[in-house]
């Protein structure tokens, strides 16, 4: 995969990574999950996104097993729950995540969403961890424009590397103000659930003749078009989850698909961009 995005600190990352929500929940699928993650890494999807919340640590344990012999070739992202996001609890959460992940550092540590702990306390804690080297960078998730503005008012807040938010064809609200604001600040966006979780909403998306038509024109499938669309601006990294090797292979190919202006306009007609401020969509 040759397409990359650049973090605030200059680090370059491939535009498609791998998610891990629900991974680890079913012990019978463990082998398949590990195989899919490892195949993704081999193919260049080196950004692995997980969280202490996923299966209460079960997802981190699967990731730890998958990367045990290739830690250095992975860009490892985990998230701290908001009520753990300061002081000793933050340190303990990180230590437990590292243990489950069988590593001694994270490449990126995210605040999962904004809770009641003042942002300055979280930034202080994350900066302390960053300076000690146990996390290389930090960022946030599920933060709307006003939250990001508050964050940048904090001392050290300018070190935030990414904002991870829900973004797919049927959830475009961030395009109105959050995305342009992040672009101005040179903070990349990580698009979560870029395939709309392959659920009911996703089925509605797939029913779109436009989406299917574009997929046919590109000799691709609608999932690949959704992924290619989510990373089209060069400032967004998408993290589809898949525990199926053939899906993983198709997901990586989406990085090479280029949607034409005409195709983007056709998609805009069906999946209309926002014309006013919308509350941040969250799962
Ligand atoms: N920060 C947050 O609050 C937050 C919230 C939600 C998610 N996330 C992160 O974002 C990641 C991705 O989001 P998500 O897991 O919610 O949903 P998603 O990636 O949009 O969709 C995952 C679903 O799509 C299927 N799939 C993947 N590739 C496919 C393909 N090429 N063809 C057909 N089906 C395909 C997967 O099934 P198979 O496994 O069978 O392929 C799975 O059922 C999560 O895993 C997590 O790491 C973060």
Task: Give a written overview of the molecule.
- With 283 residues, the protein is of the alpha/beta class.
- It has a single domain, classed as TIM Barrel, CATH 3.20.20.100.
- It is 40% helix and 13% strand.
- The protein contains eleven helices and nine strands.
- The strands form two sheets. The chain has a seven-stranded parallel β-sheet with strand order 3-4-5-6-7-8-9, with helices on one face. It has a two-stranded antiparallel sheet with strand order 1-2.
- Helix 6 (178-185) links the parallel strand 7 (160-166) and strand 8 (189-192).
- Helix 1 packs across helix 2 (58-67).
- It is globular.
- The model has no long low-confidence stretch (mean pLDDT 96).
- The structure holds NADP nicotinamide-adenine-dinucleotide phosphate.
- Residues 19-21, 49, 112, 141-142, 164, 192-198, 223, 239-244, 247, 250-251, 283 line the site of NADP nicotinamide-adenine-dinucleotide phosphate.
- Residues 16-270 form the NADP-dependent oxidoreductase domain.
- This is Aldo/keto reductase.
Number of domains: 1
Query: In the CATH classification, which architecture applies?
Result: Alpha-Beta Barrel
Number of helices: 11
- CA radius of gyration is 18 Å
CATH class equals Alpha Beta
**Cofactors, ions, other ligands:** NADP nicotinamide-adenine-dinucleotide phosphate
- The CATH homologous superfamily: NADP-dependent oxidoreductase domain
Estimate the global geometry from the Cα principal axes.
Answer: globular
CATH topology: TIM Barrel
How are the strands of the largest sheet arranged?
Answer: 3-4-5-6-7-8-9
Secondary-structure element series: EEHEHEHEHEHEHEHHHEHH
Portion of residues within helices: 40-55%
What oligomeric state do these chains adopt?
single chain
Distance between the termini: 29 Å
Main sheet record: 7 strands, parallel
Helix/strand class: alpha/beta
Low-pLDDT ranges? none
In round numbers, the mean pLDDT is 96
Number of strands: 9
- Residues in β-strands, percent: 5-15%
Pfam family, one: Aldo_ket_red
Domain NADP-dependent oxidoreductase: 16-270
InterPro entries: AKR, NAD(P)_OxRdtase_dom_sf, NADP_OxRdtase_dom
Protein name: Aldo/keto reductase
């Amino acid at each position: 995969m040759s397409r990359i995005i650049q973090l605030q600190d200059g680090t370059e990352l491939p535009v498609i990574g791998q998610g891990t929500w629900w991974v680890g929940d079913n012990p019978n699928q463990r082998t398949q999950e590990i195989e899919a993650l490892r195949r993704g890494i081999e193919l260049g999807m080196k950004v692995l996104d997980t969280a202490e919340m996923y299966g209460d640590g079960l997802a981190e344990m699967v990731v730890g097993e998958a990367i045990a012999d290739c830690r250095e070739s992975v860009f490892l992202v985990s998230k701290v729950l908001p009520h753990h996001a300061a002081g000793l609890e933050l340190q303990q959460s990180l230590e437990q995540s590292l243990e489950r992940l069988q590593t001694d550092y994270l490449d990126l540590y995210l605040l999962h969403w904004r809770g009641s702990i003042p942002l300055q306390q979280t930034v202080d804690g994350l900066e302390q961890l960053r300076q000690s080297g146990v996390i290389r960078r930090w960022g946030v998730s599920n933060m709307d424009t006003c939250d990001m503005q508050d964050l940048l008012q904090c001392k050290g807040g300018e070190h935030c590397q990414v904002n991870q938010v829900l973004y797919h064809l049927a959830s475009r609200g961030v395009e109105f103000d959050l995305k342009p604001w992040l672009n101005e600040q040179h903070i990349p966006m990580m698009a979560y659930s870029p395939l709309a979780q392959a659920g009911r909403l996703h089925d509605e998306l797939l029913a779109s003749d436009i989406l299917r038509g574009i997929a046919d024109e590109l000799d691709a499938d609608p999932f690949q078009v959704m992924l290619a669309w989510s990373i089209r601006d060069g400032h967004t990294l998408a993290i589809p989850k898949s525990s199926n090797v053939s899906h993983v292979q198709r997901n990586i190919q989406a990085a090479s698909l280029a949607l034409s202006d005409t195709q983007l306009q056709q998609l805009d007609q069906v999946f209309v961009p926002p014309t006013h401020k919308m509350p941040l969509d969250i799962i």
